[in-house]
Amino acid sequence: MDANETNIEDNIWAGILCAVFFFLIISLLAFPNGPFTRPHPAVWRIIFGCSVLYLLMLQFFMFQNYKTIMNIFYWLDPKLEHFHINMEKEYGANCSDLSFDRIYSTIDVFAWGHFLGWAFKAVLIRHAGILWAISVMWEITEITFAHLLPNFVECWWDALILDVLICNGLGIWVGLRICKALEMREYKWASIKDISTTTGKLKRVVLQFTPESFTSIRWLDPKSTAMRFAAVCQLVIFWQVTEL
């Protein structure tokens, strides 16, 4: 690749992409295998390399001021300079109106985001108590920081009933049911060539992207030590910081 003698920004961007590309190649060859083996350990080594790059980027941003960080984002994507959040829809207005139309109007793409997000979190954590603790604590976090982010302003019935009980609760229940079903699944390592039907072949391809096995996890039990309890509390706190 030849350097552009007139456009230094293109040269910097090309250099960054090249450095990222070779870092991911090194991660593919040198990083250790993780707990996931499907569809292939090499895929997860590349994903781990992307996670390391993301962590390094966050560490770099920690030493920059707000203006510098925003200028970097504007340079990466100039459209962000004129981007603004559409706040025409107010979730915390007219909370005394409990009509069906008012409640139905609050069910939008964010409701599905709550449901799907907590279903995936349940698959990751697999403990109902911790999941409910994180769910309730996150709603408290939204109330605490509502003065900073207008999207956090919600009616009490929206936060407690729609979010925590219905969307989050159903997501947690579905995720735990998925875990229970997958733990009882019987794997048949037949070659795809031996499957005669098209539906069976497609099902076999989809199963290739699922974990090789599932292990039942007990985060807390009556014999847990104080250090174990402290570690679980630390997990909950870090999860809240990541969500924020």
From TrEMBL:
Primary residence: endoplasmic reticulum
Subcellular location: Endoplasmic reticulum membrane
UniProt xrefs under Pfam families: PSS
GO-annotated cellular components: endoplasmic reticulum membrane
Protein name: Phosphatidylserine synthase
Keyword Endoplasmic reticulum: yes
Catalytic activity: a 1,2-diacyl-sn-glycero-3-phosphoethanolamine + L-serine = a 1,2-diacyl-sn-glycero-3-phospho-L-serine + ethanolamine
Taxonomic placement: Eukaryota, Metazoa, Ecdysozoa, Arthropoda, Hexapoda
Source organism of this protein record: Bactrocera dorsalis
